[in-house]
Amino acid sequence: MTPQEMRARTVRYGELQPCRTAFIDAHTPGSDRKENFTIIGGGVSESPDQHVHIAIPHGFNIGAAGQPPHCRNSLHSHHTAEVFFVLKGRWKFFWGRRGTAGHVILKEGDIFNIPTGIFRGFENVGTDYGMIMAILGGDDAGGGVEWAPQVIEDAKDHGLVLGENGKLYDTKKGQALPEGVKPMPVMDEAQLATYPEPHASEVIPRHVARYLDLAAMADGAPVKVIGENGRLPDRPGFEVDLITRASATEDRHSHDRPSVLMPVFGHWRVDWDGGSDILAPGDTMSVPEGLAHAAVPSMTGEAALYRVIGTDDPAGPTWKG
């Protein structure tokens, strides 16, 4: 594969195109400064303004959320896996009907396989603009987002209405629901009662992995974070490995499906049959199936990247409480 062809499968951090109207809470105070990025696959954005960088199916989606300090993403749920790792900053992840069932604070490199079927949200609790990278199960990402009732009600007060077709309409811009399209129904109490409210002691040990712990284990070989025999034992339709300087090798290898390389620390040189390129933290590279390649640190200092590969496992659910 030529360098030009690989560049079409590489998204640089500095070239990410944000969408500021991706979801129903885009105008709600406290959530109105966030940026949503769709890197691989269609994601779950509710806005036609969302730019998709790489549309090639991988069996999963890759996205990102960028937020200034004290900006939060409102409570929602997914049918398929949602896995985050922190690229920049400090983040609070919280869950439950009101976001009060439990929470965890994550730092750069930490990874969280948030259980499906549970309302969750997140907030940048650092002092600078932060970024989290997201992996969503399935090519269609489970058909969208389910919002906690208060999120839908609050959005109406600020001009955004979500149709039952999963699309947003901004009344402040003169938009209205098309004829025959009803508003997205708000969940009733019986439906809400089916959403678990697990304590942090139930969630954190099984669904959170700290970067420093993973890096200590990735000595001599990559550490399996998510997947069969992984540190986080779910098999949500993809597997995630952490590769560090101590576990990187120049021996080339290939996979029978596309793989995605996402550096979190350091610069990485990726060599393949046909070329070579350098990846920095926040860059995303999709390596085609069958292409022999190797990734190694290109500079001294700390170096780590996450690798994502699809599997034949179902894309959800991931909560077994």
Structure description:
The chain has 321 residues and is mostly beta strands. It has two domains: 3-208, Jelly Rolls, CATH 2.60.120; 211-310, Jelly Rolls, CATH 2.60.120.10. Helices cover 10% and strands 35% of the residues. It is built from five helices and 23 strands. It has helices at residues 3-7, 149-156, 189-192, 200-207, 211-217; strands at 10-11, 35-40, 52-54, 60-67, 72-77, 82-88, 91-95, 102-106, 111-114, 120-124, 130-137, 146-147, 160-162, 168-170, 208-209, 223-226, 238-244, 259-265, 268-272, 275-279, 284-287, 293-297, 304-310. A seven-stranded mixed β-sheet has the order 3-2-4-11-6-9-15. It has a six-stranded antiparallel β-sheet with strand order 1-21-18-23-17-16, covered by helices on one side. Strand 13 and strand 14 form a beta hairpin. The longest helix has 8 residues, at 149-156. The N and C termini lie far apart (45 Å). The model has no long low-confidence stretch (mean pLDDT 94). It comes from Roseivivax isoporae LMG 25204. Residues 69-132 form the Cupin type-2 domain. This is Cupin.
